[in-house]
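dumping the sequnces here before i forget
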Amino acid sequence: MGRVRLQDVAEAAGVSTATASLVLNDRRGRFSATTAEAVRRAATELGYRPDLGAKGLRTSRTQTLALVSDEILTTPYANQMIQGAQDAAWQSEHLLFMVNTGSDKAYEAELVESLRARRVDGFIYASMIRRRGGIPEGMRGMPVVGMDIELPEDSAAASFVPDEVSGAVAAVSELISAGHRRIAHITDQDWVPAQQLRLRGFTGVMRDAGCLDLDLVRRLPRDAASNDQSDWGERASLELLRRTDRPTAIFAYNDRTAIGVYRAARELGLRIPEDLSVVGFDDQILVATELRPQLTTVALPHRDLGRLAAQTLLQVVAADDADGAERPSGTVLVPCPMVQRNSVGPPNRS
Amino acid sequence: MGRVRLQDVAEAAGVSTATASLVLNDRRGRFSATTAEAVRRAATELGYRPDLGAKGLRTSRTQTLALVSDEILTTPYANQMIQGAQDAAWQSEHLLFMVNTGSDKAYEAELVESLRARRVDGFIYASMIRRRGGIPEGMRGMPVVGMDIELPEDSAAASFVPDEVSGAVAAVSELISAGHRRIAHITDQDWVPAQQLRLRGFTGVMRDAGCLDLDLVRRLPRDAASNDQSDWGERASLELLRRTDRPTAIFAYNDRTAIGVYRAARELGLRIPEDLSVVGFDDQILVATELRPQLTTVALPHRDLGRLAAQTLLQVVAADDADGAERPSGTVLVPCPMVQRNSVGPPNRS
DNA sequence: GAACCGCGGTCAATCGATTGACGATGCGCC
DNA sequence: GGCGCATCGTCAATCGATTGACCGCGGTTC
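..and the predicted 3d for all of it:
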């Protein structure tokens, strides 16, 4: 059981624990090079690791961050985000607590309290899908950064969100530069934040290219009976593709919607990408790569989001310690890379 | 900043910290009911929460568990597992550290050390896909339970793994009771542990039903050029379904393989489930529900795995404290529930 | 009336590190 | 020789809780 304590190291090196601590924390000017050498050797020989609990008690820094989210950890989106955050944290020798709160605010508050009782150094507050919202009350006064969440103007925290607009712009540009002009957009319900942004990106590019036709935008009605995204994609596509002046390309709100587009194309005997080009959004694992042909889509920069959030949080914590530097704040847009696969081709001029 | 300390509570209640601690930890026999009442009231009024770092320093229990895995956290499988573990841990007021080690053993060792420096109470060691393996050296001497990993015989730890065999049995029985007799099985490479078990389940049921035809088992060759699972599913299905005595049902190794089966059926103009019944395995999100018709499949009991692992780990920790009770060990098979959707029907006797 | 007991509570050591306040030692300089 | 000043270290308090040892007191018991 017996872990090696600072005292053991000190004894082995023939100095006091004070000196040992000083050396190991590199507080220069209070020990000689010889002593330092001895201490360090003893430490490595014994395999000493400071007890972070005790250290934290004294310094009130636990080298531990918390990643709190509503649902994120239980969605297929989570993977890269967690990994990005963990990697960044680990660079600075921090570890991550991860908790899912679901939508229950009381539960969330409990978890946050429990995290504070463990003296975490800061919080990453993440949302599964982009939304507006505030930082939970319980995190007040602590370093926090947001992820995929739009904070209120007056919030002192920084937040990282995917740049949906430019992602949509890239997607549509991809189609335009392949030669398409009649491009449809099948989108979600209009209260969905990401929907608005992707639509804005679409509209912007199309208008600039002089080929915006609002008639080719299909928005899922609020009172839609089914809001299964692939079903909606199929229904909308069927309708669009049956028109005599059917679009030659479809920009789908997301990859699940694109699944529906594929189904519709199949039903109508339209080949992708020969007769119809398709671009999705999200680059969802198991979707984008399993469709045939594989789907060209826009990836959500989850790994970057995680990395940036953790790095920034660490900076905020450090700034807190030095209680000098102003801390970062504001919403930061992170670019969404285009992932080219095989669902886009030139329009079929027949 | 100032958190409420035990001392504050004690002062407010007019007692010593010793008494306050005794009351709050319910060590009966050393205080009167009146005092207890006063202390408790003071505690709730001030919103007291013990500092778990300090507490842990003294008691060497941090109410914190670690979930260490190779890749699990970054796969779509992870979700439910994490949630299950978190829920179970939370029941006992524990929180979870989660780390991904990737396949780098040195990194793994570092992380484990770091976790021990934080004095976690125990480890859940999880694998992404079922495999054989030992507990990392660094966890020796600590409470550990495994997940989706087959431990060596002599291991003192318990491990929870899905009962692949009975899952396969259920899947095939589903087909048999729908009336099928010519059932094919498209499986993975033969060194994959889960492959062997699912195949065993298939073979067992088929033999019992007197309709085992090994010719209908298609195993992905070891030296296969592409080991993309859906491609393989498609290739194998095409071949099987082109036979004059084609099978009326296919049990696919997993849902991704089933995607290929669907594609093949479509190419050949076979309808599911009218002309061909299909059962998958894994119940992968975004696959099983997005295929049309939706796929009948066997779910991996990830949530249960997580829950059981955490609960058991907590028991082991408790047993350690009471240093009495023998700790659970051995590999525990957790049942895989059948998920009925729409890809199974009676055989088409035409 | 002395010894003893149980009850209700407090003292102070302890967990393992950090760090401000203090030495001790040696050297240079007037 | 004495003073000042670095340089190199150690002492001991501290972070916030837990807990074995101990204590005072009123009541029994013989």
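Chain A has a mean pLDDT of 93.
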